[in-house]
Design a protein that fits this description.
The protein is an alpha/beta fold. It has helices spanning 5-20, 49-60, 73-81, 92-100, 143-155, 169-177, 188-194, 208-211, 224-229, 231-247, 251-262, 266-278, 292-302, 319-328; strands at residues 35-39, 64-68, 87-90, 105-113, 117-120, 134-137, 162-165, 183-186, 203-207, 216-223.
Length: 331
């Protein structure tokens, strides 16, 4: 009998928290840090543009920003708890599971709307066609993997799908295009490769952000120790991030950033910018609206990634976002 997602997560996060020994007590220090240790993906996509812009703005403001890539959420959480990292973007179910096991981390704003899709090879047009087929997923318990499991359970109960863990959207895309898997969970940027003119027609069976309203893709998560030591720096990070989100609402501005950061030709960059803005990927006020955390906790419990009992107040610290919005205004 296979262990449930909750059992696997509980063991993983218990080992992480126990191995790190918990967060150290806050040490006296200045309210602003000199260095910010920020998780930056090795292979960013368009959804990461505000994060990259925030990093640049913080550097221009005089901070030293140490960017480190973590291929796995478990390793990133371990780094946060072990005071090796200050802020990271983490799949919300994984962050919640770590908090339930005692990790001294908290959500400080949303990173973006869920943009992942379930994409299948041309001959698979319905979810029941996936019976005994392989689908590439990023890990066992990200929001997109849980949304995929929910889709199969609700739309085609009884369908048995073999999930294959392949980290990196580009790697999952390559597996799908080469027909090494029958389906894959892909982001919007990878979808542009799938839909290039002249390629075989692949099918989108589910757009998780639409099919599961209110589902978070990922959240900006901080070490509580860092927040306690450097609250002004935390506000600076949130301010830079929110201002970047607002800046890229201008299609021309987002297009220029996509061109420069991903070396894409102007027409393709403009098409990506149009798609991301039409999807309303980023919340102009940083997210964390009333009921958001509760909905995502309930979803994770429903899908067996969390045990019941975790409260929204224990998972998010909105003080920094509230202070920034009081300063720059809501939109």
């Amino acid at each position: 009998m296979r262990p449930s997602a909750a059992a696997v997560l509980a063991l993983v996060w218990a080992l992480v928290v126990a191995g790190c020994g918990g967060a150290s007590d806050p040490q006296p220090g200045q309210s602003r840090a000199q260095t910010i240790r920020l998780e930056i993906p090795a292979e960013p996509d368009v959804s990461d543009v505000p994060r990259l812009m925030a990093r640049d703005a913080l550097q221009q403001a005089g901070y030293k920003v140490d960017g480190t890539a973590y291929r796995d959420n478990v390793i990133a959480v371990q780094a946060l708890v072990n005071d090796q990292l200050d802020i990271a973007v983490i799949s919300l179910p994984g962050a919640l599971a770590a908090m339930q096991q005692g990790a001294a981390i908290t959500v400080i704003m949303e990173a973006g709307k869920h943009t992942r899709r379930l994409v299948t090879v041309p001959e698979i047009t319905r979810c029941s066609d996936l019976h005994r087929k392989q689908v590439a997923v990023p890990n066992i318990v990200s929001a997109q993997t849980l949304a995929f499991r929910r889709f199969i359970a609700t739309q085609c109960p009884g369908t048995e799908v073999e999930t294959v863990v392949i980290s990196g959207a580009d790697n999952r895309l390559a597996a799908l295009l080469s027909r090494r898997t029958d389906g894959a969970l892909l982001d919007l940027m990878a979808m542009f490769e799938v839909q290039r003119p002249g390629k075989a027609h692949f099918n989108v069976l589910s757009a998780f952000g639409t099919d599961v309203p209110g589902l978070a893709g990922a959240a900006v998560v901080a070490s509580r120790s860092f927040l306690e030591r450097h609250p002004d720096t935390a506000r600076d990070v949130v301010r830079a991030w929110v201002q970047a989100i607002r800046t890229v609402q201008d299609p021309g501005e987002l297009t220029r950033h996509i061109e420069r950061r991903f070396a894409l030709e102007p027409g393709r960059a403009a098409a990506l910018a149009t798609t991301y803005l039409a999807e309303k990927v980023w919340d102009l006020n940083g997210g964390l609206a009333e009921g958001f955390m509760q909905r995502n906790i309930e979803f994770a419990v429903e899908m067996g990634a969390l045990k019941p009992g975790l409260s929204p107040d224990a998972t998010a610290d909105t003080r920094y976002l509230t202070a920034v919005l009081a300063e720059i205004g809501r939109k």
